[in-house]
């Protein structure tokens, strides 16, 4: 009986793992921010290998923060270094809360997550490794309450 129960639980876990895999995601990584204090000099780095340039992609930034984040927005830049060596910088401002102060995005207890498109339909010019860096440009040199910064690249269906 115990063996049958273990087999059922193991099968359910396996199915959940398979169901959580999105075939359209080409790259996804989240960098944890030490002590939830994002220093302006601490640039989040990402390297994504793009193998298929025949389809458009959506490139998104993933921001996770807690209730101790003192602002309703986040100003940051994303620098993209193409496989050919050309650099492109995108300056962004992301709203994290509504005007009444309620946090936007998905929440789990004290943690909030927002995925914001940097580019909604982007055709990579060449295959190869693309480097991305994300740096905040807020007034505080050390930004409290940011728990993770991530990058997601998904092929458009």
Oligomer: single chain
Side-by-side strand order of the widest sheet: 1-11-4-8-7
Approximate helicity band: 10-25%
Low-confidence stretches: 4-20
Q: How far is the N terminus from the C terminus?
A: 44 Å
Shape annotation: globular
Biggest sheet character: 5 strands, antiparallel
Mean pLDDT: 88
Total helices: the number is: 1
The amount of beta strand, in percent, is over 45%
Order of helices and strands: HEEEEEEEEEEE
Secondary structure tally: strands: 11
The assigned structural class equals mainly beta
Radius of gyration: 18 Å
Task: Describe the 3D structure.
The protein is mainly beta. It has one helix and eleven strands. It has one helix at residues 2-20, and strands at 25-32, 37-39, 44-50, 57-66, 73-81, 87-95, 106-108, 111-122, 128-136, 142-144, 146-155. The strands form three sheets. It has a five-stranded antiparallel sheet with strand order 1-11-4-8-7, with no helix packed on it. A four-stranded antiparallel sheet has the order 3-9-5-6, with no helix packed on it. Strands 2-10 form a two-stranded antiparallel sheet.
């Amino acid at each position: 009986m115990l063996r049958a129960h273990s087999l059922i639980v193991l099968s359910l876990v396996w199915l959940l793992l398979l169901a959580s895999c999105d075939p359209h995601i080409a790259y996804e990584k989240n960098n944890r921010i030490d002590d939830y204090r994002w220093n302006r000099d601490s640039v989040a780095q990402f390297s994504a290998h793009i193998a298929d340039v025949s389809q458009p992609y959506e490139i998104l930034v993933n921001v996770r923060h807690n209730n101790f984040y003192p602002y309703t927005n986040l100003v940051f830049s994303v620098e993209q270094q193409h496989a050919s060596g050309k650099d492109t910088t995108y300056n962004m401002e992301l709203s994290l809360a509504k005007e009444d102060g309620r946090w936007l995005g998905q929440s789990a207890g004290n943690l909030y997550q927002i995925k914001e498109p940097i580019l909604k339909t982007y055709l990579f010019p060449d295959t190869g490794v693309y480097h991305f860096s994300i740096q905040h440009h807020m007034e505080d040199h050390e930004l409290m309450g940011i728990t993770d910064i991530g990058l997601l690249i998904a092929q458009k269906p």
